Amino acid sequence: MDLNKLFLNIQKGEISAISEGITLIESNKNSLIKYKNKLLELCLPISGNACRIAVSGIPGVGKSTFINEISKLFIKENKKIAILTIDPSSAKSGGSIMGDKTRMHDISKSEKVFIRPSPSSGHLGGVNIHTKDAIILFEAAGYDIIIVETIGVGQSEFEVKNITDFFILLTITNTGDEIQAIKKGIIEITDLIVINKSDGNNIKKSQILKRNLTNHIISKNKTKIETCSSLKTQNIDVIYNIISNYFKKNIRTKKFSEKRKLQRIIWIEQKIKQQILKDFYKKNEIKKRIRKLSSGIEKNKLNFNNEINEIIKLYKSKNIK
Ligand code: GDP
């Protein structure tokens, strides 16, 4: 594998090279780890310059329609956008017709836009261990804006917060998910709440929700709240200005680079943890112990605590077969 050539072509922004790089990065094959890490090593020094935006919300709330609209304004500003989106065929529909619909249809043909779908399977609703690596690659390829879409499932919001700069929570009236977001502490990490589908009969209800949320939030933090209609392209420009002002104001500050540094540390820790655990669970003795523990649970015949402690002891010792 000629990684230097691949990297040079990624740097030039060649679509086929970017696709090849992303496929390599997303691979779980052990034999490819050294290539994957080498590619990241080449990309890292020229990465870190994009505005990274997270868009989260339950299925059907309008994430892809919203991303489609907001991206058009970035394209107008001559920005290149990479969108890490959720593969619609793997997403639970939750009332929306996601299956065969072409998501983000207007922007998908633009040469300034690269859309990378990933399966929504797993507990992190679209964010996975490869997402941060993909961001690094897109930055090396010269993308100015990276949008990471996630299905709000609780943990995913916190994971995506660790790899992005600006967190948008999309909501609509009558779902109650904003109450969940308040309960789970998601509002605290949210930079902007967007109440979507504020059109037709929904305008009044959206305004009420905005007022209620404002009352809840005002004393607590700096989260902004806006209503919009992605379908009718209403108030999208206001939201665009909030996002771009945030980056204009913050991107060169010390606080911002400190945050990036901290995110990098978390990423390095995760990389190491991921490799250590992968090797650990591959050991025959560990596989055997875990199987024994599992069948013991089935037969209701074991001392769970002791067994777990034994496995942890093995983890700490260096002599596992
Ligand atoms: P996602 O699952 O969160 O990506 O949601 P989609 O963007 O696929 O939208 C789900 C459905 O809501 C689609 O039928 C959209 O046309 C519709 N939709 C999205 N935004 C709006 C909006 O602002 N107003 C209205 N009335 N419908 C919308």
Name some characteristics of this structure.
single chain, 321 residues, alpha/beta, seven-stranded parallel beta sheet, 50% helix, binds guanosine-5'-diphosphate
Summarize the structure in short.
With 321 residues, this protein is α/β, with parallel strands linked by helices.
Structural notes for this entry:
The chain is an alpha/beta fold and 321 residues long. The chain is 50% helix and 12% strand. The protein has 13 helices and seven strands. The protein has helices at 3-11, 15-26, 33-43, 63-76, 131-140, 155-161, 177-183, 186-189, 202-217, 236-250, 254-282, 284-298, 304-316, and strands at 51-57, 81-86, 113-118, 145-151, 166-171, 192-195, 224-227. The chain has a seven-stranded parallel sheet, sandwiched between helices. Strand 6, helix 9 and strand 7 (224-227) form a beta-alpha-beta unit. Helix 1 (3-11) packs parallel to helix 3 (33-43), helix 2 (15-26) packs antiparallel against helix 5 (131-140) and helix 4 crosses helix 10. 35% of the residues are buried. The protein binds guanosine-5'-diphosphate (GDP). Guanosine-5'-diphosphate (GDP) is lined by residues 57, 59-65, 96-98, 196-197, 199, 229-231. Guanosine-5'-diphosphate binds next to helix 4.
